[in-house]
């Protein structure tokens, strides 16, 4: 048994980011064609496109602000023209900001997190799910976070955005399930990426000591979970929030 995505077309938002790049490579290795979304890093998007194509897959680069509906609709048209209809959408893009206390956090940061966590997914759903409904097949996968369950100091804007995203995905899973579209979330912990490898900062004992597996996860482990949810191996899983964090947070029944 293996993860097989041959012939599937995947859109990954924020594909030039630390986690997005590994997702793109992993899904391409599973046989998928990849639509690489970027907001500002055109050079990295072009490099990733060449890498995907070197694996024998088709790839397309699309730029856009995923918090604006007209740009998401344009992205849909561009990906359809270059790859065909999108079968799998991965909402990975998120706005970065400086974390601080609730009393000091600018209101604009809460708005930005709501837009990039919730509104992005609303626009992606409106743009791409109608064709999935017609095909009676599709996957929407959102990248959430363990922070949504931790609620630690200084996490308020991020947690608020991601908890809003969680509610949206659970409702959406019920609304589109009859069309055999699954809607799920992967919730990474504090994940090791190329940025950590380049700075030799993979190890953090203070964090790892609280993790049952006593280590940080890797970008590849996040991508593996995404690949599983994108595949037919997960065809009867929907509405799930799946932590990939070594047990650092554990949803309860």
Poorly predicted tracts of residues: none
Strand content: 5-15%
| Corresponding CATH architecture | 3-Layer(aba) Sandwich
Q: How do the strands of the widest beta sheet line up side by side?
A: 3-2-1-4-5-6-7
The CATH C-level name is Alpha Beta
Succession of helices and strands? EHEHEHEHEHHEHHHE
Pfam families: adh_short_C2 (PF13561)
Organism: Paenibacillus pinisoli
Protein name: SDR family oxidoreductase
GO molecular function: oxidoreductase activity
Note down, in words, how this protein is organized.
The protein is α/β, with parallel strands linked by helices and 253 residues long. It has one domain: Rossmann fold (3-Layer(aba) Sandwich), CATH 3.40.50.720. It is 45% helix and 15% strand. The chain is built from nine helices and seven strands; from the N terminus they run βαβαβαβαβααβαααβ. It has helices at residues 18-29, 42-54, 69-82, 107-135, 147-150, 156-176, 194-199, 205-208, 219-230, and strands at residues 9-12, 33-38, 59-63, 88-91, 138-143, 181-188, 241-244. A seven-stranded parallel β-sheet has the order 3-2-1-4-5-6-7, with helices on both faces. Helix 1 (18-29) packs across helix 9, helix 3 (69-82) packs parallel to helix 4 and helix 4 (107-135) packs parallel to helix 6 (156-176). It is globular, with a radius of gyration of 17 Å. The two termini are 30 Å apart. 47% of the residues are buried.
């Amino acid at each position: 048994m293996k993860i097989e995505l041959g012939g599937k077309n995947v859109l990954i938002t924020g594909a030039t980011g630390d986690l997005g790049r590994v997702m793109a490579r992993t899904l391409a290795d599973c046989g998928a064609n990849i639509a690489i979304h970027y907001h500002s890093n055109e050079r990295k998007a072009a490099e990733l496109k060449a890498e995907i194509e070197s694996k024998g897959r088709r790839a397309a680069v699309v730029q856009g602000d995923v918090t604006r509906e007209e740009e998401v609709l344009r992205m849909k048209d561009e990906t359809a023209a270059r790859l065909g209809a999108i079968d799998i959408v991965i909402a990975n893009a998120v706005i970065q900001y400086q974390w601080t206390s609730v009393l000091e956090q600018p209101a604009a940061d809460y708005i930005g997190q709501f837009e990039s966590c919730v509104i992005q997914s609303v626009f992606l759903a409106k743009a791409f799910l109608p064709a999935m409904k017609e095909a009676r097949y599709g996957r929407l996968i959102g990248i959430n976070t363990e922070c949504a369950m931790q609620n630690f100091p200084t996490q308020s804007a991020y947690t608020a955005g991601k908890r809003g995203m969680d509610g949206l995905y659970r409702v959406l899973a019920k609304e589109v399930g009859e069309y055999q579209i699954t809607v799920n979330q992967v919730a990474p912990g504090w994940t090791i990426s190329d940025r950590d490898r380049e700075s030799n900062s993979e190890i953090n004992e203070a964090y790892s000591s609280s993790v049952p597996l006593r280590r940080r996860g890797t970008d590849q482990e996040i991508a593996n979970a995404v690949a599983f949810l994108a595949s037919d191996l997960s065809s009867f899983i929907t509405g799930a929030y799946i932590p990939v964090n070594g047990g650092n947070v554990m949803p309860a029944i």
